[in-house]
Amino acid sequence: MAMRKKWHRFIGAWTSAGIFRDLGLAMSLSPRVVRKIIKPTVFILMLLPLAWVFYGWWLYIMGDLSLVTANPIEYTNRHLGDWAMRFLLVTLAVRPLSRIKSLVWLMQLRRMVGLFCFFYAFLHVSSYVVLDQFFDWPEILDDILKRQFITVGMITLTLLTPLAMTSTKAMIKRLGSLRWQKLHSLIYLASVLVIFHYWMMVKGNQLEPKIYAFIVAALLLSRLPQRVKKRSKLAQEKAGLQ
Ligand code: HEM
Questions:
Q1: Is residue 83 within 6 Å of ligand 1 at its C-beta?
Q2: Could you tell me if the CB of 198 is within 6 A of ligand 1?
Q3: Where are the domains of the chain?
Q4: What pTM was computed for the model?
Q5: If you ran DSSP here, which 8-state letter would residue 93 be given?
């Protein structure tokens, strides 16, 4: 009898809206699980694109061009740029996703993903400076001034640098939460610029930059209602003070 009751309760829970609540609860992870399991796993996963490049070069040295193609420098540069951009978009997606109750824990990963974005952007630019241009600084300067997509890339990297440098808790304290938030809203501009960088670089009518542009637009629009709400709340508070 007791067994049957238990069984009924179980069926009841899983056949009503409870299924969604249970799934939500199952997905909401404790800070400890995130710190001990999820974070190290994501860390390793985010290193895989870099490992992929090394693997490609190893094959290349062995005479197999199937991965890095006949132009391994271009492949390396583009692959690293792609991943820098993808991680930038993931960083941007964390806040809207974490509004879902069971995904709040995603916020614990945001700093790490953001730093990986910068890491890949740095490697992308380094591959251009070292492998593509062989430290030919006058040529690099000429590129920055004359090739518009490189100019935009340079601005994007310049915007990302202070964000990476101020990502620690100590820096949040030092700058103050409001100033820190203002500085870090540069990520929106960086995400738009990286799309321009990509779009200006590709030749012909390619689908990929359009897909990324659509994702950035959707992510930025998803922040709009929250921003409007925050602003009107601030304005109301100010009016109340006067
Ligand atoms: C000083 C800064 C930068 C320079 C000099 C630079 C340079 C380049 C170059 C030379 C290419 C390849 C062009 C070609 O193969 O024809 C490229 C492509 C690209 N870059 Fe950058 N870049 C910079 C910053 C960035 C940043 C900060 C990001 C991302 C956050 C980024 C993301 C990309 C992407 C997604 C591509 C296209 C890759 C593809 O074709 O799949 N770049 N960049």
A1: no
A2: yes
A3: 29-222
A4: 0.87
A5: H
